[in-house]
Design goal:
The structure is a homodimer of 218-residue chains. Chain A is α+β, with helices and mostly antiparallel strands and 218 residues long. Chain A is built from 10 helices and 5 strands. The first copy, chain A, has one domain (4-92, 129-214): NADH Oxidase, CATH 3.40.109. Chain A has a 4-stranded antiparallel beta sheet, with helices on both faces. Chains A, B: Belongs to the nitroreductase family.
Chain lengths: 218, 218
Amino acid sequence: MSHPIITDLEKRYTTKNYDATQRIPTADLEVIYEALRLSASSINSQPWKFVVIESDEAKQRFHDSFVNKHQFNQKHAKAASHIILFAHKTHYKRDDYAKVVDKGIEDGRTAPADRESAFGGFAFAELNTKADGNTEAWTKAQTYLALGNLLHTLARLGIDSTPLEGVDPEMLSELFKDELAGYKCEVGLAMGYRHQEEDYNATIPKSRLAREQILTVL
Amino acid sequence: MSHPIITDLEKRYTTKNYDATQRIPTADLEVIYEALRLSASSINSQPWKFVVIESDEAKQRFHDSFVNKHQFNQKHAKAASHIILFAHKTHYKRDDYAKVVDKGIEDGRTAPADRESAFGGFAFAELNTKADGNTEAWTKAQTYLALGNLLHTLARLGIDSTPLEGVDPEMLSELFKDELAGYKCEVGLAMGYRHQEEDYNATIPKSRLAREQILTVL
């Protein structure tokens, strides 16, 4: 199939080795941050924090978070241009949704007089809240929407990337305590440019299950 | 910010009323299906089934699935051009990954002699498997990657859409028993074209939290 969207998606792949000398230009970073911000989420809940690791100091901290597990991903901490931690709120509450409602008023989406009725959507958050107040199954899923959106965005920008479920949530919550502010990070994304000689995954064919194995039209 | 990616993401929104007379052209459907197939997933697990509701018969079944709950979404069943059910495998096993490995061999990604070592990534699935064999927290998240990718794809195609967490997994598992084949659907996506007069959400401003509320650069 020949289509610009398919061309973009066919060329993206999981980078296994980065060229540590290359950095993402500022203009592209601005697109990345805005694309993340514009990501869709259930009831527009936006139950996330994105922590971008850019400085050498932050990269050292991310590097150190691999002390206990997933060491195969540690090399990306310093070789990738940037890493984004995708963190979700584990206990999403009415106060969190109030920020969304009030931003809606500020943006002219909701009339101030309709503030109370704008909380109607929050019933959906309640449906996804366990007896102990935990909303993780729901809020974590939303961060994957943002991640899927960003992977597509990066493909369009010609920037390489590596989704990192192989991170250590406990170590991250210690080493990035202030920045995560209680949000939980179970997935990250390394971004940058592939190493031209040392990325075996850049040259072998992409593989996906056949359409008939995963999709049915009724 | 002026950038084609941002323009696409700013124009997409959650459609609240569809024009029932418009249908997505076949060429666009082909792009949609291929974009879904190419979606990224952890260890390339692809733990999903996409059931596309296109015929009147299937739309009636989807319509009927709202008998118990989320009736506000029922109208999309017949007015949207197509609905996709995103279903995940609740108990992802080595046999499932074997299909991925064998397709990798077929696609020339893995040499036949390396078949056994290609199962190395499955350790990651095991890490995400609970004592009772349940992998839902992990596999469901992957379907949101595909959904995030598809929302971006549809924005580029100029096709409107509505994510539907408001579906009834139990009724769907009954009414689409054969097609879901034991996979669980907790989210769908309606797609089509907005009703030009009756979609209030098409004309009010999009709203998102400010960048400083959700993103930190270290």
